[in-house]
Structure formats: C-alpha cells, structure tokens
Amino acid sequence: MSRDRLRVMFLPGALSSLLILALGIWGLGLGLVMPALRGEPAHAASPVTLSVSGMTATISNGIFTIKFNSSGTGYSLVWQGKELIGPAKGFYSSINGGTGFSPTQLTVVTNTASMVDIAYISSWGELHYVVRSGVSGLYSYFLATGIGTVGEFRTLYRVDGSIFRTGYNGVETAIAFPTLSQIQSATELQDSTYQLSDGTIYTKYDAATYLMSQDLLHGVYGNSYGVWLISPSHEYNNGGPLKQDLTVHVDSSTGDAVVLNMLISAHFGTPQVTIPNGKLFGPWFVYFNNGSISDAQAQAALQQQQWPYSWLSNAAYPLTRATVSGTLRLADGRPAAGAQVTLAQPGGDVYAQGAGYIFTTVADSAGNFTLRQVRPGSYSLYAWANGGSIGDITDQYELDNVNVSATSTNLGTLTWTPVRYSTLLWQIGTADRKAAEFRLGNLPRQYGLWNQVPANLTYTIGSSTPANNWYYAQTAVGTWNVNFSLNQSYSGDAHLTVALAGMTRTAAVTVRVNGTAIGSYPAYTNDAAIYRSANQSGYYHLMVFTFPASLLKVGSNTVAFAMTSVSSGGGAMYDTIKLEVGPQVTGGGSATATPTPPPVVTQTPSPTPTATTGAACRVTYSVTSQWPGGFTASITLTNSGTTTINGWTLTFAFSAGQTITQGWNATFSQQGSQVSASSLSYNAVLSPGASSTLGFNGTWTTSNPAPTSFTLNGQSCTLA
Predict the structure, then answer these.
(1) pTM of this prediction?
(2) Among candidates 326, 358, 361, 363, which has minimal Cα distance to 343?
(3) How would you class 308 by CB atoms within 10 Å of its CB: exposed for 0-12, middle for 13-18, buried for 19 or more?
(4) Which tens digit of pLDDT belongs to each residue from 565-619?
(5) By the 8 A CB rule, do 460 and 542 touch?
C-alpha cells in the first residue's frame, strides 16, 4: 500500500475525530445526550477491528459492532450495547424487487486502526462496507462490473420493527408505522397499500420524496434509537431533479422497519437503466444515534460538507471535482430566474437517464447558476422553467459538449431562445413540470386523492384561479371546459400548449376548440404516479396543438378537454396550459419584455404572496444544535391573525455572516445577509391559529446570534 493511500485513510479520520470530539465536549457542556455525535465520548476513539472467517466478517469500532454472513448481509448490529437488527432481515442489496446479491468472494480492501473497508464481490460488482474509527455509522458504496439492465437496484436496511416505530423522510418528521397485526387484519387496496380497521390507509408510497431536493436524510427511530440513511450526493441516481422514490416503510409480512436506498428504480415512470461497468454508486452513510432528528440533521450536514469523501481512494471516485457556472438569459432579455439547470448526458430527456452521473441546481433571480462537486467528464447542460417570472416558457434549453476538466469552468452568458408566439391569450398554471399550484396539488401525498376530483368543471379565464378551480389531475370520464372571451378575431395559426406533469394508466382525452376536435393526448406509458400517491408529478410530457386561429371567434369561446376513458387511479396530471396566436417570436426585446397582451383579461402565473388585511404572524426561532462552524435552526411560523394566509414568504437577516447550506419544509434563498423562506405546496395555507415548522442547517464563524426581526409577505411578525 502506498504512502499516499495511507495518508488518505489516516488524516481524514483524525480530522473527523477532532471535530466530533469537539462536538461531544460541547454537548456534554450543555448537558445534552448525543450518542451519535458522542459516537466518540470525550476520550480517544477506539481502533477499528476486523475478524474474517471464510465469507463471514465482524467489524467493530467501540461504538457499534456489525456482523456479515456469507451472503454479504449484515445480520447483527449492536449499537451502544443494544441489538438493533434482531429478527429483521438486516442490511443487504437486491435488484428488480427480488433477486438477491450472491457474492462469491470477500475481499479486505483496507484494514487499519482508523478504517476497515471490505468488499463482497459477485457478478454484479463490488458491495463495500466501510467502518471508520470514532464514527457512529456504516459507510457503503457499490462498484458495478456486470449488473446490466435493471428496473430496480437498491440497498436495504431492515431493523427490528418493535424498536423502530416511526419514520422520517425529510418532509414529514413523524410517519407512524402500523403494527404487523394491524396490517395483517387490514384490507389490501393495492401493492403495499392497506386500509386499516379504523378506516385509515397506510401505504409506503406516501413516504416518497424528490431525491435531489428533499432526500439528504431519511430514516426510522423509536425507543431512543435511530437508524438513518444520509446521501450527501445523488449524482449516481437515475432521473435527475424530478426523480421521486421510496424512503421508509414497515414490511407487511415481517413487521421489519425498512430504510430504503433506491440507487436505480423505475418508480414514477422512469425507464429501465443499463448500468455501465465501472459506475460507482455512493458512498452513502448509515448513521446510528439515539433517535434525535435534529442530531441526525446535523450529522447529515456534516457528511455533506465532507463530500467527496477524502478517505475513499478509488479510480472510479475522483476526489478532484469541478465547479461549473454561468448565466442563462432568455432571448427576449429576461434572466432565466429560478430555472432548473442540470448537467447530464446527451439525449434530451434527463428523466430517462441513469447510466451516467447527473448534477443539478436552481438559477438565482439574475439567471446565475453554479453547479458544485461535478465529476470531470463531458456533459450536456439542460434548463427548464421553475415557474416565477419565466413561468410562461415550456421549452427546454440544451447546450451540448460541455467538457468539465478544470476545477472551475465558467460558461459565460448563455442565450435561451424558446419557441414563443407574439400574443399570449391565456395561461392556466405556470411552467415548472409540477402540479403543485393546482387544487389538491399542495396537499401531502395520500392514497385516493384522485377520488376528490370532479369529472366535469368549468374554468373561466379572468375569474377562476388555478388553486381553486383547476385540479392537479383530470381523473374521471367527463369534460373540463375553459371559457374565455375575445373582442377581436385572429388569422393564421393558434397554438395550444399542454404540458402534462404526468400520465397514469393511459387516459384518453380529446381536445376541442368551440366544438371542433384539434387533437388527442397520445397513449403515453403509465407512470403509476397518481395511484401511488404522487400529486405533483410523474413523467413529464409536452404537447403543442396547432390549429387555424379562425376557430376562435369574437365573444365567448371554449376549449374543452374531454376524457372519454380512464382506469381507476389513472389520469392526466397537469403542469400548465397556454393558448397563443400570432407569428413566432425569437427574442430581441428588452430585459423587461413580456408577451404582447391580448385585448382581454388574461390568466397569468400565480402572483407573489402579499400581506392580507387581518393577517398577523408570530415567529419562534431556536438553534436546536450547534457545533464548531455549523448549526441547525428551527423556525415555527404561526398565523396569529384572523385571515387565512394562502402562500407565504418569510424574510429575515443574519447579522454575523451566517450562511444557510440546506433547508427543509420551505424553499430557502439567501442574498448576502438577507434570507427568504417560501412555502411549499403542502404548507402554503395557514388558517388562523395554524403553524408551520421549518428549519435549516447553516454555517457560522465568530458568533451565531439569532435574527432580530421577521417579515411575512411584507408584514412584520411578533418574535416569540
């Protein structure tokens, strides 16, 4: 073994020990119980030991001991003297839902006092387990060498269901698991979906999340124990920024509490993936603590700061990464504010990708973007609208042949020239590839939501609103009419753009303009999104129906979406619909250019939340965890007024240079010291007396004072 490799293995462990030792001393000073960060108490960390017998192995670091059988399955985990796996199936890997990992060889890659790395090797590739001194958790990664084409590739961490009774998925903090007897006496509605005897419904699909934006941390906890999966990066997953997947659930046949690590999956419509030899998945971190969510969040932030892990020396895992930046502007002069910007492989459809690596970010209000920790390689750069000021743009931007080799690549100012037409007559919703702004689209995931959608509705341009009068999905045989008035006629072509956030169980829809059919929705592949509790997106589809503008008339007009057949739990999930006329325009306007307004009232994207008469707010701010250079904070926002708040943005300022690195239960943005946190779909509505709790991880330098004032939708809040 070379000196360089020894240095890579020893130095990070020492730094990690010093950092966690400081955290342990801080926690003890406050009288807190922090077994996870106490993973080293205030004394020297124990060395890592490895015992191998044939194809079995036992690894211990003084905090926990884990045992593996000849199948590469972790079947015993003793943490702080407590067996956490017990009768459960343990830690293992599988493909396509059932085929198990079958290793033929066990290799010891590293065996030192500071780190042990063992690899179980099969025809699929190498499944590695890594234990480090002073660290209360297990690292793992997988190097593919022959796994081939799969619809699902995952690792699972199944622990004793009698201990772990609650799940956390990064969005919901307390997902209550039914007992095995409750499930066995329930009515099965579909796969992994049960109606319990009290009428409530339990399904693992309710706990799904968007991996790249919501899944830094998920896990199970209970009885003063916690097992958490921390994914500092999702660069190796398939599907890109719109990929959703499962996180935690209780097994319906064994009662095991299950923490899932979905590496590749066909859930929510993503296709099968052919995994190339040499692709490295991970590393990810399975963390053990006393069940504290805030401690797990702090540990997740710490792991994210350490990415890429310097202790891993593998040719398939480059430690030298790049920053790719640039500015994206539309041809009409507008900045691509809030656009989703993604580096992936050529081919156009990021959602269908998974063979390579994917990196994504969101542009700021000026269209500036920065992608960090990018692996060297050749990529295509994609961008699409995320609502807001460019919510009328349904086209996708693509720049091919982006070669990333240096540590910093600046692409300069890029011009995006989407297809647009001179006159926008109306638009329902906003282009962001999600249905969150529509009725029921802002609710938590839940089975059966489609049954609340009416078969027939009328949406009137100028008076109806997306949140109240257009539903997230059209799910029943019937007709949805869009009524609007014009006071002039048009010549040439008209263009009706229908962007679907998803299509579940092929729904037949015919589109008519004033009674004349102009086209039908194609028979898209079932993405299973609607009946698997998704109410914001599945597989995105874009359709443009071009028809003679002479079909439009002066006076009243109707565009009808007639659904003639659909299976239960199926339907068309909507992103946005817009109607344009006039010649195509390709930009060249000023920075404030907008589509030419028609001679009627038009529907525009949802406005920014504003203060409402009778509204008042109260804020409670607390630092729930702090360590050298970092902290976790919690904010409870309460509507203390008499008026319902529908959509909110909370603003405040730091006074000592603190920076937010990751947030949850709100969309956080920061410009200098100024911070804004905007509501998500599921917590946008706050009735009088209602509260929403949001939080974030951040960094600090010399001090960490709390903000002294908060403003909600432009109105000052009372600080509790």
Answers:
(1) 0.77
(2) 358
(3) middle
(4) 999 999 999 999 999 999 998 743 322 222 222 222 222 233 344 444 467 999 9
(5) no
